[in-house]
Amino acid sequence: MTPVLGIALLTLTLLGPAVAFVPIGGGVSTHVSITGTALLQKVTETCRAVAEAAGQEFEPTGSSPEELVQACLGPKATGEVSGAKFHSALQEIYTQNGLIDRDFANSAPHHFNSEAFLEGRGLITEGMVAIKANIRKENFQAARETLGRVLHTLQDFYSHSNWVELGYTEPYIALIHPDLPLENLADFNTATCSDCASGTCPNSILPNILKEKKLTSGYMGIFSAAKPQGKCSHGGEADLTSTAVPRGGINKDERRSDNEALHNAAVNAATAASLQLLEDIRLAVGDHDFLRMMGIARSSVVCFVIDTTGSMSDDIDEARAVVYEIIDDKKGTQDEPSEYILVPFNDPDFGPMIRTTDPDKMKKEISKLTADGGGDNPEMCLSGLQLALTGSPASSHIYVFTDATAKDIALKDTIVALIRSTKSTVSFFITGNIKRRRRSLTAASFNDYKDLALASGGQAIQVSKSQLPEATDVILDTSTSALVTVLQRARNPGKQEIFPFMLEESLKNITIYITGTSVTFTLTNPAGVSQSHTEASGKLGTIQTVGNLRRIRLNADKLTGTWQININSNQPYTLKVTGQSTITFIYDFVESFKGPHPGYAILSGRPQTGQPATLMLSVMGRKGPSSITVGEVGLATVSGPDAVSNGTITDIGNGDILVTVDAVPDGEFVVVLIGTDKESNSKFQRQSTTQMSVSKVNIQAIVDSSVEPGKAFKLPFSVMTQGPGGQYLISSRNDREFPMSYPKSLDLTTGQYTNANLTITPPANTSSGTDVTLTLEAQSSSGIDSNYAVLRFSVVTKITDFIQPLCEVVSLQADDCPQDVSQCKLFHWELSANLTDGNGTGIERISLRQGNGTLSYTSLSSPVIQANYNASCCSQIVEFIAIDKVGNVGKCYHSIIPSASPPALTLSLWLCLLVSAFVIRT
User: Fold this and answer.
1) How far is the C-alpha of 98 from the C-alpha of 5, rounded, in Å?
2) pLDDT digits (tens, 9 = 90+) for 840-858
3) How many whole angstroms separate alpha carbon 672 and alpha carbon 685?
4) 421 alpha-carbon distance from chain centroid
5) I need a surface site. Which of 88, 831, 879, 905 has the fewest CB within 10 A?
6) Contact, 833 vs 910, CB < 8 A?
């Protein structure tokens, strides 16, 4: 069988043939380098446009992503700026781009192989519709994933077709404009290539094909050598058709001595085409949301999940006060949150999730919360948390306020899977009766919240309602930019132990948290100066004690080097050391795969037992990856004996490293990184927050398309175990509560995949662009072992409107503008135009792209919208765009700059030229 493969891919340079632009490495152009070049250029253009529109300078201090983010978010704002979100966004796009080579290696449309031009363009069209719909619904992760896949297919056109052999240097615009015809395609029965016995001929396209400008692409056969008579092959060892006459191949995936010029031309065209597609998306969604999709946003996100039952009045008041304080105190700084999320819950209701970038709206929404209802004690806490985890950006900090246990405790495993998938941190503020006994072994208790907090790297803080205002300082600490974890450990049962940790010069606002009862401790700095738990304000910092929490804020003049904290307690306790720094890392567990384009795929579940664990890391320094050196990367236990299993490091370049850990720790573990900051020449220590463990069970599944409202979608999946065979229980949940059907159990044979299908049906009234997160779990009947897959897909309404809005100029008054530009300040010019969308969905937005004048227009609900532009004769160019309700973009451009020999144009002739220039289709 062909295994159903996972969710994300990052290809590497490994031995073996390639079926697309080659993967990372080797000093050649790759899908990642092409995509990265286009993304960085388009983000830079967008950031510059936003800065200029605000009257600010855009001056990156360097070329690294970190320095680009700093310049884009505003260098005048105080505070640290982390590039982690931008790096994560880039990696999501890169990995999904590479996924096409693994999961669709034999699909001609995904690679424009075998002359599948219409089908390939159809994939691009479907993807662009989904991307725009996702961004409209603020589902940025889904948009990024689709963008990566679409860019791969688009880029492959230039490597796999004869476009550059035909002499074309510009992109084929019809590929991203489905209303334009694909012209001059070679007929199925038309021979296109001459025989190339050596397989390395410079250009084997037949002369008549070149002369007639016929478009063709190479046929690719992984399992068969059959192809139509006289047709070109893709070429390469993996292509069986390349041995059938006409032999050879026309792909330009790799730069060779015989095809260097064609390879370079294909790379340039693919890069330009990627830029065109990105510009179309940018125009359709606007600069602000385009940058949000790209992860250009402050790292802080405020997400509250709040119990609104009758006993929670005081808690709601305190949550409201904290939100107001965050908004008021951090405005205009880099610590100002980029997003606010609020999820209420009680019993039996939870939600809706409120998500906004507007602080005033967040104030308004949280002010509406009132405490009411909730007859029995347990509440729908985990259902509310599930909404928050699936709706918040990855790596968010989520704060849960409750005084009751979870009624929906059956969701606990789903919550753990979502925590591991999103790498979000969840902290609980518990004001209920801590000593309440568990009613049965299956009933929920407050210990469940402790388990979830520990699994995420968060904290479970237990206080009385009167103490809650003191405890929420934790939220002010962690709702900040560039937050990093230096150390986190847990002990159950508690014992006396010394925990060393390194602090370097870049760390600011260092805070140590200890949760537990009957805890004593002594903190010691590198110079041997100590402070005990009894000293509220000492030589090293200030200590705050509230409920089960000890919060230690180090003094700003802390020493760098190795610190230690000696903790003693016979009760369970947790320890966490955090600070602010732009030196950080992001990571994923990956697995290798074989095939025509071998590489590494990101795991959506737990790594496999009995095998080395492999990680892909991106490391960020203060001035990019070149400003740090990575020394050690390993896996460390959090709750057991302090043991670190170091891995073997392979440097891929640009701050990306591959780490292989042979001896994986038992139980739960985290990632630990030790390196050197070249800026200060000091060692640093960082740790991931999300705990992971291994499993003998493996689930593989893939979502290969968007889903239409009202239509059933079948998701194939496969389950395998390396443990004992037998019956395994299957469970699945989705955050939209869409109806699903799937087998509730599967009989597994050790070492063999068992296939099954899950069917999910979005209701017919589901909004286009809705993002659905689905968790799928397989568990042994004994409950000893389990694993999961977390999948995302989009619900997108099928559209037929691909026609751009049109423009008809009705007047132009520029005669007063003087020929001598030095005299322009005293004169103005005007342009009026009628904008229409014909039989389309209607114009939704009009915006000015170039020009320093004033653009006004009549009601967007009118069939004909009159746009009026008025500007000083010193501002001689105007460009404005009209976007319809499905994201089709029309662009209108006009210049009053006089030519050397200005033609005597009548208004009607100028109008024709303008309308011609306006037809920019999406």
Assistant:
1) 13
2) 899 999 999 999 999 999 9
3) 7
4) 12
5) 905
6) no
Nearest to 7 by CA among 156, 142, 150, 151: 142
Cα–Cα distance, 716 to 712 (Å, whole number): 13
Tokens representing 116?
Answer: 């599948």
pTM attached to this predicted model: 0.89
Q: What confidence category does residue 17 fall into, taking pLDDT thresholds of 50, 70 and 90?
A: very low
User: Position 365: which residue type?
Assistant: E
With contact defined as beta carbons under 8 Å apart, do 419 and 426 qualify? yes
SS (H, E, C) 747-768: EECCCCCEEEEEEECCCCCCCC
Q: State whether residue 324 is helix, strand or coil.
A: helix
Measured CA to CA in angstroms, residue 524 lies from 499, 530, 563, 569, 574 at distances of 10, 4, 6, 18, 18
Q: Which 3 state secondary structure label does DSSP give 602?
A: strand
Q: How far is the C-alpha of 691 from the C-alpha of 451, rounded, in Å? A: 11
Q: What residue has token string 């072994």? A: 441
Contact between 474 and 513 under an 8 Å Cβ cutoff? The reply is: yes
Task: Give dist(CA 259, CA 253) in Å, integer.
Answer: 10
Strands 425-430 and 460-462: parallel
Amino acid at 636: A
What stretch of H or E contains 325? helix 313-329
- Compute how many other C-beta atoms are within 10 angstroms of the C-beta atom of residue 447: 13
Contact 77, 481 (CB under 8 A): no
**Backbone Cα Rg of the chain:** 30
pLDDT tens, residue by residue, 611-664: 999 999 999 988 888 889 999 999 999 987 777 889 999 998 777 899 999 989
Distance CA 252, CA 162 (A): 10
User: How many Cβ atoms sit within 10 Å of the Cβ of residue 814?
Assistant: 16
Which one, of 500, 490, 453, 513, lies nearest residue 574 by Cα?
A: 490
Residue with token string 């004869």: 162
Per-residue pLDDT, averaged over 793-803, amounts to 91
Taking the C-alpha atoms of residue 557 and residue 503, their distance in angstroms, rounded to an integer, is 12
How far apart CA 101 and CA 19 sit, in angstroms, is 7
Distance CA(728)–CA(780), nearest Å, equals 5
Token pair of 752 as six digits: 């063999």
Identify the band that residue 571 occupies on the pLDDT scale cut at 50, 70 and 90: very high
Q: Residue written as tokens 């180090």? A: 554
In SS3 terms, 98-109 reads as HHHHHHCCCCHH
Q: What totals of helices (H) and strands (E) does the chain contain, helices first? A: 17, 40
